[in-house]
Request: fold
Amino acid sequence: MTHLYIDADACPVKEEAERVTTRHKIKMFVVSNGGLRPSQNPYVETVIVPDGPDVADMWIADRAGRGDVVVTGDIPLAARCVEAGARVIKHNGEALTQANIGNVLATRDLMTDLRAADPFRIGSGKGFTKADRSRFLEALEREIRAALKMQ
Reply:
């Protein structure tokens, strides 16, 4: 059975994801270490994990697998989920797959090193736009349909 897992800390597309999963009648797990208002939607389960480094990531990685979809901006979590067979997208709709996750991890590590070497020269990135939201909705729809076909 297909599930959608949302790495909810700093996720700007929870409401959009909820609409898509409701339309497809699949279970959505919104995972964080607190601070979220639970949804009344019967397809949405809010999972509050204990405080600690990467506890929400571990909860998702331990459960996501073939036929599931994961929404996260956390690249190491994405890599674990891709390895387990899950379909993964970032908040801006970018798909993370077996074909690109190695390059994405390497770029992440390089940027971490560059920021550590000179934190004043590297910006924190661009803001989330309407175009990103639209790309996310298209990507989520595509990934859920593909995941449902895997059942």
Summary: The mean pLDDT is 89. Residues 130-149 form the longest helix (20 residues).
